[in-house]
Structure formats: structure tokens, C-alpha cells
Specification:
single chain; alpha/beta; 15% strand; binds ligand 26W; six-stranded parallel beta sheet; ten-stranded mixed beta sheet; 25 strands; 808 residues
Length: 808
């Protein structure tokens, strides 16, 4: 792709936007306006390419991918888009010419935080790869007014603040009110006979208008542009004029406010289902607007829906958009007049489902009564799907009641969304080898016996252009030097060439100094933001991810406490300076997770105020972990903590970002750590702990954490210290959950069982760190073998095995 944009062209275009769109003259330009003007210039370029892409795809009658996700954790876009469009240098030059620093302009952009964590960031990485690979794809989601909350730490505790991202970040969005859709809630059903057929008529419903706000997505090295379509909810009437005229201003705007609450806020729960009716409204609003919109476009091109499944594939990101299945059935039957069987054939062959978690509290189940009252027609269709599916299950398993119950779509007054997706889709996939194995043999065992070909694996991947080339320019330059150019950007397996330099002391030293510089740059940025001074001589040992008990941040804390106690026992022992960095948001209603954040902060303070620890031990909780913070942190990390209880982390993607940036992993054999181990071997990572099958066996045998507590003196002191806390704050509840939980299984995630092995892994890591050249060699192997974790590879697998679409 040739982009002949000079610095002058760019400057002219930016000045034009400032004048025309914002009425800003030269002297009034500030950083915020400059950011927005830059965004508008790139937006125009992409919109142009987008229209051309659409024409090309329509003319060629290509099959299209529709990626439906309630979350897209996009982060920032200015640098990414400029980079992908090949105008980054021109834009930087223009910004400097106008008297600003481009780094400051990039910092003006708020993260588009329309997601919680792994699932949302995965969707964002896949959009980049789908576009780069030239796949005709559209992402669909909601245009939340408020994204994931901003986290502040006040007195050691998490406080949530609203994330009003659109005021500035909205510069990327193009609202298309002409393409609005109507979504119907509530109401009554009436059955009528017409033309010898029974028709269902939906009446007395409430209408909410869906307005698309499109964000264009540029790929790397291509003119192909895809779209992320974000739906915004609006009331059909702006004001009740009668009420307004009678002076009741507030009541007059009530209906409008009601409708608009649907896209007001992103639910901040991760891996925990909350059965709120507003969340169900969000899901149906999203799904209905999306299906109507893509059905409309299909009919415009083909004049019929008969071939809908041949020309479209709908990928659903976890079960959150599961209602696409009954919604597509509804439209095909009630609006297009197809029979059940015809509609089912089309629907089933259009939909594919990705599962992202095996935690039972995260599996979506909705009360039948809620769906029935809010979505009466959708309920009817789900019920019918359930009955027909149950019949085929009973036939296959000869009326085995336990299996009928497990596989039911509707059971005990609840609708189970995962079973709906299995019944109504043509493919189900897990996100790493181990996760898919657990789906096949445990969570969806019987469904897999019935239809084995339906169950597939696609191991997750990350956008290596964002997470390596852009965020770690020093490392990118080294890779280009060593591999003879930047061809790895489109051929990530080229990174393997780095392995040849394992014996080259100079290369290893250069790798070491790049890491050193990145650590210093990160330390500067932390100092600027919070005043905290990081000890850059210490090992940067990092655990960043959502806070959840299964991810075991508490195990990391326990190991740090042990190390702190040892330092006190013997202040003169050899101690490698160590900096433990944490970043994590807790779901606002997740008490235990918030307690763990408080514990980390209490420990950090204690250590910070202890003269014995100075220059040796440091613990820092990084406030508001988000995409843009991760981009600064990954290049600086030396150790990556991936220590979930085996069998619980579906894949992980942070693990891949660390590996690609040369950090070494301390981890359990869980999620994609298994594939990492396959390519790295024991010698290039620090594996420890129970395996997934051992975890299951131990649970079956009646796991008793108190045996470990009694046997292991070090462990006992650590656990007791958690109870007694730091600086007067005690953590009795955490202590009790580890030893004798009154509510469920004690130490549900088996921290005590893995503690000794984990401490041993940390010791092995610290020992390895003593030999810098050896460490850098391991680091080099990690980077060299991270190519399989490029999202381009994952997306190509989806395209080949699930979507049946062409790609580069
Ligand atoms: C309904 C509440 C809720 C919200 C979000 C339940 C579950 C979720 C997500 C499925 C949680 C999630 O983000 N899962 C993560 O998905 C990543 C991408 O596949 C994986 O890498 C992580 O291992 C998995 O935890």
C-alpha cells in the first residue's frame, strides 16, 4: 500500500479540521483539539478506504464475518491507525511543526475501555488481524457512554470513578442515524391465521431506537478497512410534549432516560454472571439491532435470505450475544415467512460460538420468567429450540435423565445460554488446547459425544504489531536488524530466526540493555503519574490482570510475605533486589477481590516504610491497569506471573504479551501456558504446581488445606501474618477462606497446596537472574518462539476451520 502523505499534506489536513470542525484558529490550538483534529484526518482516510472495501466485497459476493461481542477493549487508536495507514511519520512531523510533541498528543487520547479484560481485548486484537488479513469482517458491540470504571486507590482501597471516554474518544465515531433500527421490548403476542399459516403478531411493545456509531478499523499494509459498529440506544420520542407543556419537565424526559440507560454503562463484572434485567435488555438490544442490520444489508445485495448462511457467518464471543439465535429465527419466520425447519437450517449454519471460561459462576443462566416478560416472542422460540433439542438428546442417549438435564436449554425455570449456543450453532470452540480438552471431556462432554465434529480449538493470539512493534520500538529495531527487515510484521513466525543468535554475546547484551532502557522509561512514567520511585536495579516481577481468586494474586502475596519474613530473620543474607508490580481491577461488588487489593497495598506500605527493605524489596500496586498502561509496562517486564489454579484460566493473553516482550514466565500448566511450554521447554520458563487433573483428583479426594498449614512452618507464618495484617488492618476473612471457609470449600483455589512449589519456582527464577547472559538467552528464546501467539495465526485458523472465508 502506498500512502503518499507528506508532512506538509498532513499539517494542512490537520489545520483544515481545526478550522472547519472546531472553529479553532492557530493561537487557540491546544493538545486536546490537536488530538481530535488528527483523529478526524485519519477517520476520513479510513472512511474512504472503508467505502471502497465495501464496494469490492459486495461486487465479489464474498462471505462476510460478523464478530459479535458485548466487549471490545480497544484502548487508544491514534498511533495504531497512523501506523497501519503508513502515515505515522508524516503525522509526527506535522505535530512537531505545529509546536507540539507527538507523545503528548498520544497521551491525550482516553482508552476506549469498552470491555473488562481478556475477552474484550481479544476481540480488539482480532479486529486488527481480520482486517490485516483482508477478511470482510464487521465487529458489533454497544456504544457504552461509560466504559470500564477508572480505578483510584484511596487509603489502600479501590474506589471506582466513571469513565467518560466519549467526550474526547468520540472523535473516532461516525454516527449513522439513517441506518437506525427499532428494537421491541415487552408487549403481547397474538396468533392469527393468514394464507393458511399461523402467524405470530407482537403488539403493545415498547420501542427503543438503535443508532449505529461506526469506528473504522485500518489493517496493516493494506487498503482493506473494516468497521466496528457500536449501537447507541435512543428513545423514539424526544419528549412527551403534553407533559412538558403542563410543566412536568422531569417526567417528560423519563421515557427518553429509560431508553438511554440501556447503553449508559458497561457491566464491570468479569467471570461472574449477575442476573440483572438491564443486562438482559442490553444483550437483546445489541443482538436485535445487529441481526436486523445485517439481514437488511444481505437482502439489499441478494434480494433473498435463502442464501444467508452461505454469505454470512456470525461469531459470538462467549454466550453474551446468544440471543442472535432466536432473534435470527424470529426474523426468518415472522418477517420473511420461512418455516421452522428452513429458518433453523439457515440459523444453525450461520452461527458459531466461542467459549471463554469454565467457571460455573460465569456460565450465563437467565430466569425464564424474565425472558418471558421482557421478550415474549424470543421466549417462545427458545422454548421450542429447547424441546426439539431435548428430543434429539433423548434419542441419542436413550433417555438418560441425568444427561437430558445436563444438556437442557431450559431447565428448572432457567435458560442456559451455553446449551442454547451449542444447540443453535455449527461450531463451538475453546481458546487453548487444555481449555478445549476440558470442554470436550467435562463441561460439554455429552454434547461433544453427540456431535464431535462441532467442537474445535483455536488457541488465542495477540496483535503483535501493537504489543511488540509499536509498544517496544527498541526491541522492534533489534528484531529488524537481526532478521533482515520488518517482514515479521506480516509473517510472525519469522521471529524464529532470532534463535540463531542464542550464542551471540553481543546480541544478548543488546537485548539486556533494551530491557534496561524500557525499565527506566517505565519508572519515569510511574514517577510522573504517581510520584512513586521504582528501583530499576530490582527484578521487575509483574502480575497484571483482573483480580480474581482463581488467578491467585493472593498466592503471589503469600510468597512475598515469606520472602519479607526471611529478610527479617536474616537481614544480612544475599538478597537480589526485587520489585513486585501488581495491577488489577476488582469487580465493584466482589468483596474478596477488593480485600486482596487492600492487602497488597497494606503490604506495599509496610515494606516501603521498613528500612530493612530499602533497595532490596519493593511492592507497588499500579493504579488503574488498562490497555495504555499495559503498553508501557509489557516492554519493561522481566518476570510474568501466570499462576492460576490449573484448569481454571481458559487461555490468558497477557502471558503472550509478556513472552513477546522477552519476560520469563513463572506459571502453572494452565491455559495457553501449556502451548508456551510446548515451544519453550522446561529450560526457558519456570513451571510449577499441580496439573489440571491433579487438581481435580485432589478435590475429589477431599482436599484439606490445614494439613499443609500444619506441616509447613513457613506457610503457617505467612497465613498467620495475613490474619494479623499490616499497619493495624487485619484480614481475617481472607485467612478464614484459606483454612476453614464456612461458606464453601476451604481454599477453593488450592493456594496452600501449591505454595511450596511456587516459592521454589521463584527461587529458581532468582538464581537464573544472577547470570545475565543466560537470562537474556532465555529471553531471546521467548521472543523467538512467540510467533505462534500472533492473532494473525488465530484468525487464519478461524477463517480456515470455522468461517470458511479466504484470507491472505
Ligand atoms: C456474564 C459475566 C461475564 C463477563 C465476562 C462472564 C464471563 C466473561 C468473560 C468470558 C471473561 C473473560 O474475559 N474470559 C477470558 O477470556 C480470555 C480470552 O479468551 C481468556 O484468555 C481468559 O483466560 C479468560 O479468563
Amino acid at each position: 500500500m502506498q500512502q503518499l502523505y507528506t508532512v506538509q499534506d498532513m499539517e494542512e489536513a490537520i489545520r483544515g479540521k481545526l478550522r472547519l470542525n472546531y472553529g479553532i484558529s492557530e493561537k487557540d490550538v491546544n493538545e486536546e483539539y490537536l488530538f481530535k483534529a488528527c483523529a478526524l484526518v485519519l477517520r476520513d482516510m479510513m472512511a474512504l478506504h472503508g467505502a471502497e472495501t465495501m464496494e469490492r466485497v459486495e461486487r465479489a459476493h464474498e462471505r462476510r464475518v460478523h464478530y459479535l461481542s458485548l466487549e471490545f477493549l480497544m484502548g487508544r487508536s491514534l498511533m495504531k491507525n497512523a501506523y497501519n495507514l503508513g502515515v505515522l511519520e508524516a503525522m509526527n512531523g506535522a505535530i512537531e511543526n505545529m509546536g507540539f510533541k507527538s507523545a503528548d498528543i498520544f497521551e491525550m487520547e482516553p482508552d476506549a475501555g469498552l470491555g473488562n479484560g481478556g475477552l474484550g481485548r481479544l476481540a480488539a486484537c482480532y479486529l486488527d488481524s481480520m482486517t490485516t488479513l483482508g477478511i470482510p469482517a464487521t465487529g458489533y458491540s454497544l456504544c457504552y457512554e461509560l466504559g470500564i470504571f477508572k480505578q483510584r486507590i484511596v487509603d489502600g482501597q479501590q474506589v471506582e470513578l466513571p469513565d467518560d471516554w466519549k467526550a474526547v474518544g468520540g472523535a473516532w465515531l461516525i454516527a449513522k442515524p439513517e441506518e437506525r433500527e427499532e428494537v421491541h421490548f415487552g408487549g403481547k403476542l397474538r396468533e392469527v391465521w393468514r394464507d393458511g399459516h399461523l402467524h405470530v403478531v407482537h403488539e403493545d411493545y415498547n420501542t427503543v431506537i438503535a443508532i449505529p456509531c461506526d469506528m473504522e478499523i485500518a489493517g496493516y499494509g493494506t487498503d482493506h478497512v473494516n468497521t466496528l459498529r457500536l449501537w447507541e440506544a435512543r428513545s423514539p420520542r424526544t419528549l412527551d410534549m403534553a407533559l412538558f407543556s403542563s410543566g412536568q419537565y422531569v417526567r417528560a424526559t423519563e421515557e427518553q432516560t429509560m431508553a438511554q440507560t440501556i447503553t449508559k454503562i458497561l457491566y464491570p463484572n468479569d467471570e461472574h454472571m449477575e442476573g440483572k434485567s438491564l443486562r438482559l435488555k442490553q444483550q437483546y438490544f445489541f443482538v436485535s439491532a445487529t441481526v436486523q442490520s445485517l439481514v437488511r444489508k444481505h437482502v439489499e445485495v441478494y434480494g433473498t435470505l435463502k442464501n444467508f448462511h452461505e454469505k454470512n457467518v456470525i461469531q459470538i464471543n462467549d454466550t453474551h450475544p446468544a440471543m442472535v439465535i432466536p432473534e435470527l429465527m424470529r426474523i426468518l419466520m415472522d418477517e420473511a415467512g420461512y418455516s421452522w425447519n428452513e429458518a433453523w437450517e439457515i440459523t444453525r449454519n450461520s452461527v458459531a460460538y466461542t467459549n471463554h471460561t469454565v467457571l460455573s459462576e460465569a456460565l450465563e443462566r437467565w430466569p425464564q420468567t424474565l425472558i418471558e416478560s421482557l421478550l415474549p416472542r424470543i421466549w417462545q422460540i427458545i422454548d421450542e429450540i429447547g424441546k426439539r433439542y431435548q428430543k434429539s438428546v433423548e434419542e441419542f442417549f436413550h433417555h438418560n435423565n441425568a444427561i437430558t438435564e445436563k444438556m437442557a436449554v431450559v431447565w428448572g425455570g432457567e435458560v442456559r445460554m451455553a446449551n442454547l449456543c451449542i444447540a443453535g450453532g455449527s461450531a463451538v470452540n475453546g481458546v487453548s488446547a487444555l481449555h478445549t480438552e476440558i470442554l470436550r471431556t467435562d463441561v460439554f462432554r455429552e454434547a461433544c459425544q453427540m456431535e464431535p465434529a462441532k467442537f474445535k480449538n483455536v488457541t488465542n493470539g495477540i496483535d503483535h504489531r501493537r504489543w511488540l512493534a509499536q509498544s517496544n520500538p527498541g526491541l522492534h529495531a533489534l528484531i529488524c536488524d537481526l532478521t533482515g527487515g520488518d517482514s515479521y510484521l506480516l509473517q510472525p513466525m519469522e521471529l524464529q530466526k532470532l534463535d540463531q543468535y542464542a550464542g551471540d554475546a553481543q546480541v544478548l547484551a543488546r537485548l539486556g540493555s533494551i530491557k534496561r532502557e524500557n525499565k527506566e522509561a517505565f519508572a519515569r512514567s510511574v514517577k510522573r503519574g504517581s510520584g512513586v520511585v521504582l528501583n530499576t536495579d530490582g527484578i521487575f516481577d509483574v502480575q497484571v490482570k483482573r483480580l480474581h481468586e482463581y488467578k491467585r494474586q493472593l498466592l503471589n502475596v503469600m510468597q512475598i510475605i515469606a520472602s519479607y519474613q526471611q529478610l527479617h530473620d536474616d537481614p544480612n543474607r544475599d538478597f537480589t533486589p526485587h520489585v513486585y508490580l501488581f495491577g488489577a481491577k476488582a469487580a465493584p461488588g466482589y468483596k474478596v477481590a477488593k480485600d486482596i487489593i487492600r492487602l497488597i497495598n497494606a503490604l506495599a506500605r509496610q515494606i516501603d516504610s521498613d528500612p530493612l527493605c530499602r533497595g532490596k524489596l519493593q511492592v507497588v500496586f499500579l493504579e488503574n491497569y488498562c490497555v495504555s498502561l499495559a503498553e508501557k509496562l509489557m516492554p519493561a517486564a522481566e518476570v510474568s506471573q501466570q499462576i492460576s489454579t490449573a484448569g481454571k484460566e481458559a487461555s490468558g493473553t497477557g502471558n503472550m504479551k509478556f513472552m513477546m516482550n522477552g519476560a520469563l514466565t513463572i506459571g502453572t500448566l494452565d491455559g495457553a501456558n501449556v502451548e508456551m511450554h510446548d515451544v519453550l521447554g522446561d529450560e526457558n520458563m519456570f513451571l510449577f504446581g499441580l496439573h489440571a487433573d491433579e487438581v481435580a483428583d485432589m478435590k475429589r479426594g477431599g482436599y484439606d488445606p490445614s494439613l499443609f498449614y500444619q506441616r509447613d512452618e513457613t506457610l503457617r507464618r505467612v497465613v498467620d501474618q495475613i490474619r494479623d495484617g499490616f499497619g493495624g488492618v487485619r484480614f481475617e476473612e481472607l485467612y478464614e477462606r484459606l483454612l476453614y471457609n464456612r461458606y464453601g470449600a476451604a481454599d477453593e483455589y488450592m493456594l496452600l497446596a501449591d505454595f511450596a512449589a511456587y516459592c521454589d519456582a521463584e527461587h529458581r527464577m532468582v538464581a537464573a537472574y544472577q547470570d545475565a547472559e543466560h537470562w537474556n538467552r532465555m529471553s531471546l528464546h521467548n521472543i523467538a518462539r512467540s510467533g505462534i501467539f500472533a492473532a494473525d495465526r488465530s484468525v487464519a485458523e478461524y477463517a480456515d476451520t470455522i468461517w470458511n472465508v479466504n484470507h491472505k
